[in-house]
Every structure is written in structure tokens, then in C-alpha cells.
Amino acid sequence: MSIKKPKYHFFVCCSFRANGEPQGICHKKGAVSLVQYLESELADRGMTDAVVSATGCLKMCDQGPVMLLYPQAQWYGNINEEAIDEILDALEEGTVAEKHLLI
Q1: Nearest 5°: CA angle at 54, between 17 and 43?
Q2: pLDDT tens-digit map of 37-64
Q3: Residues 41 and 85: beta-carbon distance below 8 Å
Q4: N or C: which end of the chain has fewer CB within 10 A?
Q5: More confident residue, 68 or 103
Q6: What is the DSSP secondary-structure string of 43-85?
Q7: Where in the chain are the domains?
Q8: Who wins on pLDDT, 26 or 18?
Q9: CA 46 to CA 101: how far, in whole Å?
């Protein structure tokens, strides 16, 4: 049995620290609810080739909430539901939502 590699893997910073407690900007700005929103949007759009993971701190607190898209290596900052919609729209169009890119 083999595991299919996803086309998109979204990592959303949820500010978890080594002891498991969330701290920091991303958590305080509602990153956990953004994980749920992103998963729902992907399902609604039929983007079954995407995976979402909540992560520990991505060390870009000044830009939080932060989301990394792999393997595209696209870092997005100041994420909210509107930004997620724009990022997904761009992916579906084969472009990049550049106004939300950090790196």
C-alpha cells in the first residue's frame, strides 16, 4: 500500500510550543479556526489533493497568522478567511496570491 503525495500541503501556524501550550500571535489571532475554515473551503471546492496541518510556531510572529504551502514553498502572512479565499482562488487559476506572500 502506498500513500499518495498531496499536491498541496498547507501548514498553518497555531503557535504550539514544545510543552504543547499555544502561545503567540497566530493563536491569539484565531489560527485554529482558520485551520477549520481552510479544510472546509478545500472540501467545498473539491480540492481533494490538499492536506492541512496545524503546526507549532513558524517563527514569523510579526506576520501572524502565518501559513506555509508545500511543496510550493509559499509563505503567507496576516492570514484571515478572505486571504484564504484569495489564495485558493489563485491556486485554482494556476497563479499565486502575491499580495499575501511573505517570502
Answers
A1: 170
A2: 999 999 999 999 999 999 988 888 899 9
A3: yes
A4: N
A5: 68
A6: HHTT-TTEEEEEEE--S-GGG-S-EEEETTTEEE-S--HHHHH
A7: 8-100
A8: 26
A9: 24
